[in-house]
Automatic annotation (TrEMBL):
Name under which the protein is recorded: Citrate lyase subunit beta/citryl-CoA lyase
Enzyme nomenclature, EC number: 4.1.3.34
Keyword match Magnesium: yes
Chain positions recorded as substrate binding sites: R74, E130
The keyword Transcription belongs to this UniProt entry's keyword annotation: no
Pfam families, per database record: HpcH_HpaI (PF03328)
GO molecular function, one term: citryl-CoA lyase activity
């Protein structure tokens, strides 16, 4: 599991593909996305759920092991008529090397425990938190077995609370901060932010992703392959950042752990940690 877990923990892009379009899975994996999420939930009509599961199982068999390790399946929420069959299908895929499940409408650690039991110890979980109840349970969800990251379904969250956010979504700042804090407390990789629905608005995508990074997120859900490269670029340290981090780390040993100044800026333990994180992210 370590290599599979590492792939999902490191991913900055999670690209959705409808399970009804299995021919797109290989294309999505080839897009450069860190992870691909095959969707059995919102992208699949109720009458197509069973056929979508069958298509998923067939598509997974045609993938290479390294591709399966980057694949998650978004299941329908617990309490829906399709949840149990979705989990059984994901379990069959996990047995073939698929990473695990993105659990929609996650609100209960008990549900996550049941999904983990069904998938077995190799199956990773990414709870998609989309409601006020999910936010209230954030810490218990983050600490549930086999959870590797939290993801924020901010559109459904707004609907659940009756919110009408502005373009900058300033109203959601405390919620996003809660995700970063819960992930940190549980020792998880940085959380994954929600989608940008404007697939042809590059400035909006860049602004949304920059906000995610500033708030401590480490990845973003994507709904179009064209979003992958800009999101990855926004999360990656720029050349100037990396050059600064390298100078900091190079200068630090000469000061024996004491505070020093570089480029007119004080360098202490938190700054050293930031420099190390930038280099590791690159």
């Amino acid at each position: 599991m370590p290599s599979v877990q590492g792939a999902i923990a490191r991913a900055t892009t999670f690209l959705f593909v409808p399970a009804t379009r299995p021919e797109r899975i290989a294309k999505a994996l080839a897009s450069g996305a860190g992870a691909v999420v095959v969707d059995l939930e919102d992208a699949v009509a109720p009458d197509d759920k069973a056929a979508a599961r069958t298509a998923l199982l067939s598509a997974v068999q045609g993938l290479e092991p390294g591709e399966r390790a980057r694949l998650l399946v978004r299941t329908n929420a617990a309490g829906t008529p399709w949840h149990a069959d979705d989990v059984a299908a994901v379990a069959a895929c996990v047995a073939q090397g698929l990473a695990g499940a993105m659990v929609a409408k996650a609100e209960s650690a008990g549900v996550l425990q049941a999904v983990a039991n069904a998938l077995g110890p190799e199956g990773l979980l990414v709870p998609l938190v989309e409601s006020n109840a999910g936010l209230d349970a954030l810490d218990t969800l983050a600490r549930a077995p086999q959870v590797v990251r939290l993801a924020f379904g901010h559109l459904d969250f707004q609907v659940d609370l009756g919110m009408e956010c502005g373009p900058d979504e300033a109203e959601l700042l405390p919620v996003r901060l809660a995700f970063a804090r819960a992930s940190r407390r549980a020792g998880l990789a940085a959380p994954v932010d929600g989608v940008t629905t404007a697939t042809d608005d590059l400035p909006r995508l860049q602004q949304d992703t920059a906000r995610s990074r500033r708030l401590g997120f480490g990845g973003k859900l994507c709904i179009h392959p064209a979003q992958v490269a800009p999101v990855q670029a926004a999360f990656a340290p720029g050349p100037e950042e990396l050059a600064w981090a390298a100078r900091v780390l190079e200068a630090a040993p000469a000061h024996g752990g004491a505070v020093f100044r570089l480029d007119g800026r004080m360098v202490d333990a938190p700054v050293l940690a930031l420099a190390a994180r930038l280099v590791a992210r690159a």
